[in-house]
């Protein structure tokens, strides 16, 4: 696989993280300017932001959980030349699940759907790691 094909899902995940960060910043600025929150109510990270701002901040924070394992795996898979077609397809499935989870998180925040997308992504990532571990230990590329 080309480096572009392997890294494109990773780049999309990074873009998702930045989009959520920018949205969170815009919402927080608007909340602060409107008086919905005051400095003394949030200075020590108290949970006093309005719901949509909190949802967006939580979604942004989520991008530093499972995706960290995805970033490490992608770099390892590329560096060891074990990123084939199966890896890239699974990487895209993982990233799509992350996008869908983030979308649900910052809109209606339906916990059932959010959990489904999270779980699907987690299972895919576990499978990616299992395949990589088998490939790394056996020398067989799946």
Structure overview:
- The structure is a single chain.
- By secondary structure, the chain is mainly alpha-helical.
- The chain has one domain.
- It is built from six helices and no strands.
- It has helices spanning 3-34, 39-42, 51-62, 66-79, 85-106, 111-138.
- Helix 1 (3-34) packs antiparallel against helix 4 (66-79).
- It is elongated, with a radius of gyration of 18 Å.
- The chain starts with a helix and ends with a helix.
- The mean pLDDT is 95.
Pick out its properties.
142 residues; mainly alpha; 6 helices
Secondary structure blueprint with pairings:
Elements: H1 3-34, H2 39-42, H3 51-62, H4 66-79, H5 85-106, H6 111-138
Terminal residue distance = 13 Å
Mean pLDDT: 95
Level of helix content? over 70%
Shape: elongated
Judged by helices, strands and strand pairing, the structural class is: mainly alpha
Short synopsis of the structure:
Helices cover 79% and strands 0% of the residues. With 142 residues, the chain is an all-alpha fold.
């Amino acid at each position: 696989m080309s480096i572009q094909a392997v890294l494109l899902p990773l780049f999309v995940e990074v873009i998702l993280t930045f989009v959520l960060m920018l949205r969170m910043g815009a919402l927080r600025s608007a909340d602060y300017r409107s008086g919905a929150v005051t400095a003394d109510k949030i200075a020590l990270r108290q949970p006093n932001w309005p719901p949509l701002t909190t949802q967006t901040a939580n979604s942004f924070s989520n991008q530093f959980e499972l995706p960290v394992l995805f970033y490490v795996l992608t770099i390892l898979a590329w560096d060891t030349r074990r990123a084939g077609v199966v890896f890239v397809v699974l990487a895209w499935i993982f990233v799509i699940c992350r996008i869908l989870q983030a979308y649900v998180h910052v809109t209606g925040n339906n916990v059932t759907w959010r959990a489904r997308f999270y779980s699907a992504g987690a299972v895919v990532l576990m499978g990616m790691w299992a395949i990589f571990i088998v490939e790394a230990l056996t020398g067989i590329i799946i």
